Structures are given as C-alpha cells and as structure tokens.
Amino acid sequence: MSDRILLAHGSGGTLAHRLVEERFVKPLLNPVLSKLDDAAVVDFAGRLAFTTDSYVVNPIFFPGGDIGRLAICGTTNDLAMSGARPVYLSLSFIIEEGFLLTDIDRIISSIRETTEEAEVKIVTGDTKVVDRGSADKVYINTAGIGVVPEGVSLSGRNAQPGDKVLLSGPIGDHGIAVMSKREGLDFSTKVESDCAPLCEMVAAMIAASPKIHCLRDPTRGGLATTLNELASQSNVRIVIEEERIPVRDEVLAACEMLGFDPLYVANEGKLVALVPASDAERVLAAMRKSKYGKEAVLIGEVKEGSSRVVMKTSLGTSRLIDMLTGDLLPRIC
Amino acid sequence: MSDRILLAHGSGGTLAHRLVEERFVKPLLNPVLSKLDDAAVVDFAGRLAFTTDSYVVNPIFFPGGDIGRLAICGTTNDLAMSGARPVYLSLSFIIEEGFLLTDIDRIISSIRETTEEAEVKIVTGDTKVVDRGSADKVYINTAGIGVVPEGVSLSGRNAQPGDKVLLSGPIGDHGIAVMSKREGLDFSTKVESDCAPLCEMVAAMIAASPKIHCLRDPTRGGLATTLNELASQSNVRIVIEEERIPVRDEVLAACEMLGFDPLYVANEGKLVALVPASDAERVLAAMRKSKYGKEAVLIGEVKEGSSRVVMKTSLGTSRLIDMLTGDLLPRIC
To answer: From the CA of B52, how many Å to the nearest CA of chain A?
Structure first.
C-alpha cells in the first residue's frame, strides 16, 4: 500500500506533511511556496483579476493532456480572457484513497511544465483525501490572480454592432479527445486535446489593439454556448458563417459517429474575440503569429439585435443557434 | 427529479446558467460577481495574502455549522493567520448528481451569513457536477485574497525564545461535533463545532501589538500538530502546560469514550499566537474582548532548543508531544 494514497495523507499529520513537501512543494518550488505558511504573501499593485475552476475531467489522462495541464490552462485562460497576465495560482487536490503516488507525480510534472510555459507561479495549496468511493481518482481546483494592464477593459458586456468575430482555430478537439479515450473509441487519425495556455497570444492581441471588446474561451458548452453568453451579456445579435468555422476532418467524423454537433463540443485552447472592424485584421495577424493561433480565422460579425446567435449555413439558409441544453458531455473538464 | 442536481447542471448550458444565476449569484449578489465574466477584476494595492482550501467534511451539516460556514471560516482564517484582512473569496462547488437543490440553498444561505460576518465578498465561482457515486454529496473549494497591513509580518518562522504561547479558547469542539454527528453518538450535553471567522479578533490583536510573531489556527491534526509545525519552522522548543489547556468536560468525555487525545482533535474557530513576553498580556486582553476569544489563555512559552514540543503534565512530568501520525479523523474539514 505504500505506493498509494492513504487516508492518513489527508490528516494534516506527518504523512500529509511528507506528501506535500516531497511530491508537491519540491517539484513546484519557488520562494513564496516554500514558506509553507497558511497563506502566501506577495506584493501587488494595479487592477487584479481573480478566478477559480475545479477540474473533474474523466479520464484524468487523455490524448494531448491530463487533468494537471487542464487545471493550469483552464484557470490561466480565464484570467487571460479578462485581458490579465496570469501571475499567481493556488492548487488544491481532492484525492481518492488508493490513488497511485506515481500518478500524483505524473500530474505534478505536467503542472510544472504548464506553469513554466504560462509563466505563472503556484504560491499556495491544499490537499484533502477522501475515502475510497467518495471521489473518482482525483479532482483539482486552481484559483488564479492576474494583472490587468492599464487601459485594458474586456467584458462580455462590451460587444458592439460592427465588431468582427475572430476564432483562434478549429473547434471540438478537446471534447472529442476526452470522449474517445473515455469510450475506448479508436479513430484512424487520433484526435488530441487542444489544451493550451493562451496568455501569450492574448498579450500579443492586446499589443496589436487595446480596443478589443470581448475575449472568451469556448470551453463547456462549446462555441455555440460562448457566443450565446456574449450575445446575451451585450444584448446584440451575433451572425456567424458555417463555412468559415474550422473543424478538423477527424473531429467532424467523430461527431457524426457520436451524434454531436461540433458547435457544442468543448475546447480548452481556443478563444473567441469580438474586435472593432478597424482593428480586426491587425488582431487576426497577431493571433496567427502566436503558437496557439496559427489557424485563426474571422467567422462572423456582431449586428444590432437582441441576444441571439444566427448561423448562415453552407446551403445559404439561416439557423438560430441556441445555448447548449441537456448534458452533452459530462465531466469534460 | 426537478428538485435535484442533474448532470446537465454542470454542462455549461442553459440549466447550468440558471442554477448559477438563481441559486448562487442572486443570494450572494455584489457588483463584481454579477458581471459573470471569466474572471473578476478589482483594484488592489499593497501586500496581498492568497490562500486556498477544499472542504470535504462528512457530514455536510453538523452541530454548530455546515460545509458552507466551514468553507468561509477556514479560508478567511488562513488569511487572518498571515495578519491579513480577508477581502475577496472565490467559491467552487463539485456536486454529486442527485444532490438536493434545497440543500444547495441551505449551504448558500449559510455562506452568505458567514461572508457578512467576516466582511468578505465572493467575487468569482465555478460549479461542476459529477455522476452519482463519483463524489460524496458536495465538495467546496474557496480561495481567498486579503490585504496585509503595513508593518505586519507574521510567519511560522518568526517564533523567538521567550515568546508566550496564547490559545484563544477550549480545544477539540469541531472534531468532536463532526464525529459525534457522523457516528450517531448522543452525549448528554451536545458538543457544537467552534467554526467561526477569526479575522475581527486578529485585527484587534494586531492593533494591540504589531509585534506578534506567529499566528496559526489548529485545524486538522489539532493543537499538537500546529505547535509542532511552528516549532519546526522556527527551530525552537515550545513548552506548554497541560493544566492550562482548556478542554470542555463534554469534549473530554467524548475523547475518552472514542479513544482520542484532544490535543490532536481539529478546531475551526481557534488560534495559537506566539507573542513577545512584553506584549503578551496586552494581546491576551484584546483576545478576551473579542467575540471568539472570551476564553483565551496563556498556555506556555517558547524556549531555546530544536523543533520539539514538550508538555508539562498535571502530574509534574514532561511529555514529548509529536505531530499527528495516522488518520485520526478523516474528512473532518
């Protein structure tokens, strides 16, 4: 049993201290985290962005990522969507008794790599252990703090008629990668999750135009749900063109097989930007130059109207795109 | 089934939006939270304290509190232990499919009351739903941000020989309250959890003496584990006197029946302070004047020596007090 998590690892006692010091703090070491006080204390001045997400993805390891990479990308991306540069993260584990210590190490190693890529530091954390059957392997929460640069003001409420709708790349990769692994499906071309930190691309976009109105990452509920959120928050009509929305062939094939609409499938490394028409080309160019935006495209426009999303289909008709209803893909993130 | 949580409540779609807007945002409403962007944006200047905890307590409702009150107290107390005034919290739920919506309301109502008492705002949040059997009812994560006043520098590393050890009240109440409820035990006098926000007391203590060296709340692992952490971080010997440590009669009786040592039983509304001898009386007086410190006492002293805790027993002998080993009380917080 010594290679597995025991209830005593969550007790606050000696085993818990050893677990935290050897398997969490050592690999993620930085001067703030190593103090091991009840709270991290750091200097901060300016406009602060603050967000949180819990990650319950099943399975915890999937093509293109794992729950650790997801927990860093998801939260740093939420910060980036407010225009912030992510700076500090908290990291909290809920672990099921019996979980393999080597899987903890694998997750922490992935977390370390992703924090280095996103240039963010984990400065505080927590570990809880629950009895066998009271969780499914491991759940992770990350909360994040970022700095919003002077002059940047992004919100889902800022969309204006005339704005162009930009999408950073093909949709549906994450949802299909997780579902195919969960269901044991085998496609001729393997679909990998797009799970990636978008903060570097967002910084380049803001440098290209500080006038960007809204950014949002289409995670749970997919592109359709995200566009509906923005249309509703800003009380505008968003019109997108089906032909312009990139979907990989293998994702489309999987969606057809599984009965999914790629518009509703989750992404973890994509963003939607609503940008004044005058700056759209410049922002699109900045996206295409960055690592995770090479396939960025313009997919539509914001119009006068109230809280709806309309798609011009490849047949030339118009279709109302609703928010996701029901539970298409539980535990996708 | 409409009175229970469905998987679709975690999908990011319409049901998820309705759950969040009606049952979370409306009762907890403030101008930042109501924006519903991916991250909350607020102004901040100064030294920032940041902490996180996940709460997996079983049962979720117990005498003297519930998982909601615990999630606010635990995290604001961790901030307070760094000398910070808690300001902003995040709130993230992992909910098991089938959980009663009325229990969500009950928890949120308790969260609202406790945030009002602690004068802290919930500004961002997240909700995940997992399939039945993949969690035990509900788990909550809160992360918190606080402001550390100028000139305050508290750390477990700051203890000095000569410091007095102050304890804010009787120990063991929380652990025994939770265990008695979980095991269905019935004591002639009901034990209630001490679960409480300590930030007001801490502010009064700091006003009485900015020279306090360490504060820590003896939660998981109890007073014995907390004193061991401080002795180890500061590399000092801490000597406490058994006769001075307050334990309620009913807690002592329960501990004897269950085979627990109250020194290792969790508290959720107590703190330990290590304070220079010159200021100890003043700090103690400030504690006794505040709502949750009326029974505060001096229990010992910091001495030269290395990383150990010694207790002078009521029989006149000395006993080495170790950190908790094993899993005395799983899922106590």
So the answer is: 6
Please give the Cα distance from A320 to B9 (Å, whole number): 23
Within a 10 A sphere around the Cβ of B310, how many other Cβ atoms? Answer: 17
- Asked if B146's CB is within 8 angstroms of A52's CB, the reply is no
Extents of the domains making up chain B? 7-148, 164-321
Reported CATH class of domain B7-148: alpha beta
Architecture of domain A164-321: Alpha-Beta Complex (3.90)
CB spacing of B327 vs A7 below 8 angstroms? yes
Contact (Cβ atoms closer than 8 angstroms) between residue B281 and residue B202: no
Say yes or no for a CB contact (<8 Å) between A54 and B328.
Answer: no
pTM as predicted: 0.97
**Separation CA B171–CA B174 (nearest Å):** 8
Tens of pLDDT, residue by residue over A91-124, are 999 999 999 999 999 999 999 999 999 999 999 9
Paired residues of A49 in beta bridges: A146, B41
Interface-testing mutation among B5, B7, B19, B51, with chain A (most A C-beta atoms within 10 A): B51
The span from the CA of B163 to the CA of B241, in Å, is: 15
Q: What is the pLDDT of residues A290-316, one digit of tens each?
A: 999 999 999 999 999 999 999 999 999
Tokens of B305: 């020596």
Q: Residue B53 is nearest to which of A53, A92, A123, comparing CB atoms?
A: A92
Q: Residue A116: which residues within 8 A CB-CB, separation 6 or more?
A: none
- Alpha-carbon distance of B88 to B75, in angstroms, equals 10
Q: Which of A6, A37, A265, A324 to mutate to test the interface with B (most CBs of B within 10 A)?
A: A37
Residue of A174, A176, A171, A216 lying closest to A77 (CA atoms): A216
Do A261 and A172 touch, CB atoms closer than 8 A?
no
Pick the residue from chain A with its C-alpha nearest to B36: A156
